[in-house]
C-alpha cells in the first residue's frame, strides 16, 4: 500500500510570520495655503531613527527656503518648509534617506 504524502494540512492563508506589509506608517507630504500665494509644505511620519534637525538643515540649504520643526500631540514632530517643496522633498527622501516611494504620500492640489 503506497502512502499518500499530499495530505499534509497546509493553510495558504495562515500567518507565516514573514510580514512584508508594514503597518500603515506612511510619510505624508502636505501643502497648506497661507495668505495670498504663500504656502507651507509639511512632512510628517518620518521614522524615529532619523535626526529631524539635521534633515531640516539639509532641506533648508538645498531648497533655499526657511523651515522649522513643530511638535504636535497627535502627529509627533512635523517638519514645516516655506513654499511648495512637495516634489523636492519626495526626491530627497527617496534618494538621500533611501525610503521607499510606496511609503510616501503626497497630498494637495
UniProtKB/TrEMBL annotation:
<dbReference type="GO" id="GO:0003743">
    <property type="term" value="F:translation initiation factor activity"/>
</dbReference>
<dbReference type="GO" id="GO:1990145">
    <property type="term" value="P:maintenance of translational fidelity"/>
</dbReference>
<dbReference type="GO" id="GO:0043614">
    <property type="term" value="C:multi-eIF complex"/>
</dbReference>
<dbReference type="InterPro" id="IPR036877">
    <property type="entry name" value="SUI1_dom_sf"/>
</dbReference>
<feature type="region of interest" description="Disordered">
    <location>
        <begin position="1"/>
        <end position="21"/>
    </location>
</feature>
<dbReference type="InterPro" id="IPR001950">
    <property type="entry name" value="SUI1"/>
</dbReference>
<dbReference type="GO" id="GO:0016282">
    <property type="term" value="C:eukaryotic 43S preinitiation complex"/>
</dbReference>
<keyword id="KW-0396">Initiation factor</keyword>
<dbReference type="InterPro" id="IPR005874">
    <property type="entry name" value="SUI1_euk"/>
</dbReference>
<dbReference type="GO" id="GO:0006417">
    <property type="term" value="P:regulation of translation"/>
</dbReference>
<keyword id="KW-0810">Translation regulation</keyword>
<dbReference type="GO" id="GO:0043024">
    <property type="term" value="F:ribosomal small subunit binding"/>
</dbReference>
<keyword id="KW-0648">Protein biosynthesis</keyword>
<comment type="similarity">
    <text>Belongs to the SUI1 family.</text>
</comment>
<feature type="domain" description="SUI1">
    <location>
        <begin position="27"/>
        <end position="97"/>
    </location>
</feature>
<protein>
    <submittedName>
        <fullName>Translation initiation factor eIF1</fullName>
    </submittedName>
</protein>
<comment type="function">
    <text>Additional factor that functions in concert with eIF-2 and the initiator tRNA in directing the ribosome to the proper start site of translation.</text>
</comment>
<dbReference type="GO" id="GO:0006450">
    <property type="term" value="P:regulation of translational fidelity"/>
</dbReference>
<dbReference type="GO" id="GO:0031369">
    <property type="term" value="F:translation initiation factor binding"/>
</dbReference>
<dbReference type="GO" id="GO:0001731">
    <property type="term" value="P:formation of translation preinitiation complex"/>
</dbReference>
<dbReference type="Pfam" id="PF01253">
    <property type="entry name" value="SUI1"/>
</dbReference>
